[in-house]
Amino acid sequence: MLQNAAHSKDRDAKASHASRLLVLDPRAPGWAERLIGAGPATMVLVLDQAQDGLAELAEVAAGLAPLASITLCGPTDPGWLRLGSVLLDGPALAAHRLMLGAIGQWLEPDGFLQLDGAAGQGLAGRRLLVGLAEATGRDVFGQESLEQPRLPLSPWPMVQRGR
Fold first, then answer.
1. What is the pTM of this model?
2. DSSP structure string for 118-151
3. 43-53 residue pLDDT tens
4. I want to staple 73 with a disulfide (CB 3.0 to 4.6 A). Which of 12, 116, 143, 160 is the partner?
């Protein structure tokens, strides 16, 4: 289910105004609050728990491209993230490499992915961030990196370059 906080009249208008995509798995803690708090330039995709969340994401991102950012919010623990029926962890990245590469293409040249929750924490989380950056060709941030003090030259510390 795709929603827009700006309530545009048609899909083309939505795509032209959206610069960010927030992907929510309804099993994630606080997902309803994230939905309510999405700003007018943010499209929200609420995943079907029984469907492949990466496939849903790729389809929607293609229709909204180019995007400045994609935020992934699902059930997490350090080193893994669930999006619909897909468990995204280190070993699963290889199986989803083509789809992740396509998702990276739908981002602007300086666009990035952000993982909400614990997925990017610890050593396992760092491996997941690096693997996602390599697969998408984009910068990937974990929640932990967004809570660190910001560097003067970069608003997003702990960047994992995928290029």
1. 0.81
2. GGG-HHHHHHHHHHHHHHHTSEEEEHHHHTSPPB
3. 999 999 999 99
4. 116
